[in-house]
Design goal:
With about 55 residues, the protein is of the alpha+beta class. Helix content is about 65%, strand content about 20%. The chain contains two helices and two strands; from the N terminus they run αββα. A two-stranded antiparallel sheet has the order 1-2. β1 and β2 form a beta hairpin. It is flat and about 40 Å long.
Length: about 55
């Protein structure tokens, strides 16, 4: 099971390695698309877990 997850993560990174320009309020940050998507995923998990604990 762990090997399949590692393989999927590897494929995700390879497919989304193009740079993406992201506007963060005022500055424009250029980073690989996989890093931006992973960051948003982690932020969503954190917000969801905090919200779940408050209920």
């Amino acid at each position: 099971m762990g090997g399949v997850l590692v393989l999927l993560v590897f494929v995700f990174i390879i497919e989304n390695r193009d740079p993406a320009a992201i506007r963060v309020i005022i500055p424009i940050v250029v980073m690989p698309l996989w890093a931006a998507l992973t960051g948003m995923f982690v932020a969503g998990i954190i917000v969801g877990s905090v919200w779940r604990r408050r209920r």
